[in-house]
Amino acid sequence: MSEFSLIERLQALNPVLRQDVLLGIGDDCALVQPHLKTTVAITTDSVIAGVHFPVATPADAIGYKALAVNLSDLAACGAEPAWATMALSMPKDDLNWLENFANGFFRLAREYNVQLIGGDTTQGPLSITVQACGLIPKGAAIRRSTAKPGDHIYVSGFLGDAGFELIQHQRGRRLDYPTPRVALGMALRHIATAAIDVSDGLMADLKHILTASQVGANLYVHKLPLSDYLLQHCEKATARLLALSAGDDYELCFTVPPDKIVSVARISSELGLALTEIGIITMNPGLRVLDENNQEIPVTKDGYKHFSEHN
Ligand code: ADP
Ligand code: MG
Predict the structure, then answer these.
(1) pLDDT digit string, tens, across residues 229-250
(2) CB 102 near ligand 1, within 6 Å
(3) Alpha-carbon distance 36 to 121, whole Å?
(4) How far apart (Å, rounded) are the C-alpha atoms in residues 297 and 306?
(5) Under a CB-based contact definition with an 8 Å cutoff, are residues 130 and 68 in contact?
(6) Is the Cβ atom of 118 under 6 angstroms away from ligand 1?
(7) What's the CA-to-centroid distance between 1 and ligand 1, angstroms?
(8) CA distance from start to end of the chain
(9) How far is ligand 1, taken at its centre, from the CA of residue 247, in Å?
(10) Chain centre to alpha carbon of residue 7
(11) Element (H, E) at 120
(12) What is the rounded average pLDDT of the residues 39-61?
C-alpha cells in the first residue's frame, strides 16, 4: 500500500487553504492560529463500513457523510467550521475509490471553508475518523446543559426521512447526504439556551438535553414536521414514529426562551429553513409525548408500543 501517494493525492485534491492555518498536511503536526477571544470547538466521529453505512455505499457519499456528521456536531454548538483531520483505514490501495471519496469530502469542505490539515492513513477494514474544529466568539457556545423550564423546543427541517430511506433502500439522498445545519447553529448563538443535532433519533437526542439540563419536556406528536415525501410513502402513525425515534436526519433540536421566539421566526425566513416548535421544557423531569388531545402516549423501553392505536 503506497500510503504516501494516497496522501499526496488527497493533498492535491484539497480545495481549501485558510489563512489561520500556519502549516497543513506534511509535517508531524498541523499548526493553526485562531484569533484571541475565540473559543475552539472540537469534535470527532468515526464511520465504519457495515456499522454506520452499508458496505455498498458509494465512496462519494462516505466521504461526504464522514465530514457532514462532524459539521453537524459543530453546528449544534454554534461553531463555524474551520479545520479537519482524518484517520483513514482502507483495505487496499485504491486510488479510484480515494478520488471518489475525496470528491464527496472536499465538496462539503469547500462549501464550509474547512481545510483538511492532517490525518493518518493505514491499511485495514474500511473506517474513517474525522476530527473537525470550529470557531465560536468567546462566550457564545451553545451547550446541552442550559435548557430552562418554559423554554420552547424547536427542530429544523423535517424528521424521519433518512430513517425511512434506511429501512426502504439502505440508501437515499437524505440518508447519504445529510445537510449539516451550520448556518442555523451560528444564528442560534445567544438565542438558543441548548441545542443538539438529531443523529440517533429525536427522543434519544432530546433526552440528552433533558438529562444535562436537569429538566423534563412535553413533546407534541402532531406538531412534528413531516415531509410530503414521508407522508406519501407511509402511514401517518409510522411517519410519526420514524420522526420520534429514527436517526440520521442531522437536524438541530434546540430550546428557546419565550422572549427569543420572534428571533426564531426571523432566522427561519432568513435561512429559508423550516423551524418548527414541537414542545416545551418542563420542571417535571422525564420526556412525555402527547397527542392532539393532550393525552400522553405510553412509552415503553422499546419505543412507542401503543403508538398506532392513537391515530
Ligand atoms: P507521521 O508519520 O508523522 O504520523 P504520516 O506519514 O502518517 O506522518 O503522514 C504524513 C502527513 O500526511 C502528516 O502531515 C499527516 O497529518 C498527513 N496525513 C496522513 N494521512 C492523512 C489523511 N488521510 N488525511 C489528511 N492528512 C493525512
Ligand atoms: Mg502516521
Answers:
(1) 999 999 999 999 999 999 899 9
(2) no
(3) 33
(4) 7
(5) no
(6) yes
(7) 14
(8) 57
(9) 32
(10) 27
(11) strand 115-123
(12) 92
Site to substitute for ligand 1 among 2, 120, 133, most atoms within 8 A of C-beta: 120
Mean pLDDT in residue range 277-300: 93
Report the separation in Å between the CA atom of 131 and the middle of ligand 2, taken as the mean of its atom positions.
Answer: 15
Neighbours of 100 (CB within 10 A): 17
Determine the residue type at 267: I
Task: Check if 25 has its Cβ closer than 6 Å to any atom of ligand 1.
Answer: yes
Is it the case that residue 306 has pLDDT exceeding 50?
Answer: no
Pocket flag, ligand 1, residue 88 (CB < 6 Å):
yes
Give the residue carrying C-alpha cell 502549516: 23
Q: Which cell goes with 214?
A: 436537569
User: Could you tell me if residue 199 is left (phi over 0), alpha (psi between -120 and 50 degrees) or otherwise beta?
Assistant: alpha
Could you tell me if 172 and 242 are in contact, meaning their C-beta atoms sit under 8 angstroms apart? no
How far apart, in whole angstroms, are the C-alpha atoms of residue 218 and residue 136? 31
Task: Find, among 154, 155, 172, the residue nearest to 163 by Cα.
Answer: 172
DSSP 56: T
Ligand 2 (single-atom ion) residues, CB below 5 Å: 120
pLDDT of 143 above 80: yes
Angle at 145 (CA atoms; ends 45, 288), nearest 5 degrees:
95
52-73 residue pLDDT tens: 888 889 999 999 999 999 999 9
Nearest atom of ligand 1 to the alpha carbon of 26: 14
Amino acid identity at 70: N
Q: Which amino acid is at 15?
A: P
The mean pLDDT value for 191-199 works out to 98
Nearest Cα neighbor of 78 from 136, 144, 160, 117 is: 136
Nearest protein Cα to ligand 1, atom 24 = 119
Atom of ligand 1 nearest to the CA of 87: 23
